[in-house]
Amino acid sequence: MTATVDFDRIPFLVIGEQPISLGQTLGYLQLSGTLVPLIREIVNQHIILQEIQSRSDLEVSLPDLEQAVIDFRLKQQLADADRFQQWLANQGLDHATWQNRVLFRLKVERLVEKIAEPQLLPYFEQHRSAFEQLELACIITPDVTIAHQVSQQVTAQTPLEQLLQTHAPTDAQTQILRGLVRCDRLPNELRATIVAATPGEVIGPKQIEQRWCVFQVGQRVPASLDSDLKRELQTRLFQQWLSAKVLSLSVQLVNQSPLANSDPQTSLAA
After folding, report:
1. CA dihedral sign, ordered 37, 270, 187, 183
2. How far is CA 166 from CA 139, 163, 169, 219, in A?
3. How many Å apart are CA 10 and CA 30, to the nearest integer?
4. Interior CA angle at 149 toward 143 and 150, to 5°?
5. CB atoms within 10 A of CB 48
């Protein structure tokens, strides 16, 4: 026989002098729309912890742990012992609990690397064109007349760079942007057009929200799997792995209906 759990009788918090039951707490979270995100985070942590406990290739040496502790304290300006103790108190932590948190973070980082490693290079090669960068010069203005003037002048073989000084000093609302932009970070409504453009080609005016934009495309810079992109792709691949794990599980509150992963409003894999 399965015992029925009465959430309204299970104490959870005392606010002021008023006890708050677990049922009330869940009701508050559901009313505010934060119950499913909280459960999603719990499920994620459960999967991650189980995976870490099942593996033997994530061990952290004492020197690595000590270095991580030093790095954190220096980064957070907590090298002073008294200041660090005050920070722990403010966080509601003792030193052992905090150190275990650092250790867990290190193991998660190694897990991310291990999960992503087999797919990293194939994924990069498959999406290499999306990680290429384009040199772009752009004038953004709320004045459609200025946008058309710029477009016509650039089309007449006057480089956009020469026009930047012409319009910027006379119009405080006109913005000038230039630099490298990764292809997959271009606005969706412009990506295909800009990616297909040849060096020197002018695009626009294009209206984006309440402003007008004129782009001139420069050289294309090939993608390389540098350290920043590698970390980004490792995180992306790990999240895909984690979402697949969540989708394979049935999750429900005790004696309640399962939380449907197929419902976009309650999806735990989002």
Report:
1. positive
2. 11, 5, 7, 24
3. 17
4. 90
5. 18
3-state secondary structure 225-252: CCHHHHHHHHHHHHHHHHHHHHHCCCCE
- Using DSSP, state whether 42 is helix, strand or coil: helix
- Helix or strand holding residue 218 (H, E): strand 211-221
Quote the pLDDT of residue 33. Answer: 93
> CB-side exposure of 220: number of CA atoms within 13 Å?
15
User: How is residue 181 annotated by DSSP?
Assistant: E
- φ and ψ at 135, to 5 degrees? -75, 125
Can you give the length of the chain in residues?
270
Amino acid at 52: I
234-252: pLDDT as tens digits = 999 999 999 999 999 888 8
**Alpha-carbon distance values, 223 to 59, 137, 201, 237 (Å):** 33, 20, 21, 18
36 neighbors 269 (Cβ within 8 angstroms): no
Rg of the chain over all Cα atoms, to the nearest angstrom: 27
Short-list 257, 16, 179, 15, CA closest to 24: 15
Cis link prior to 205 (omega < 30° from 0)?
A: yes
pLDDT per residue as tens digits for the range 208-223: 888 888 888 888 999 9
Q: Examine the pLDDT at 102 and tell me if it is beyond 70.
A: yes
What CA–CA distance (Å, rounded) separates 92 from 79?
19
Q: Positive or negative CA dihedral for 57, 60, 64, 69? A: positive
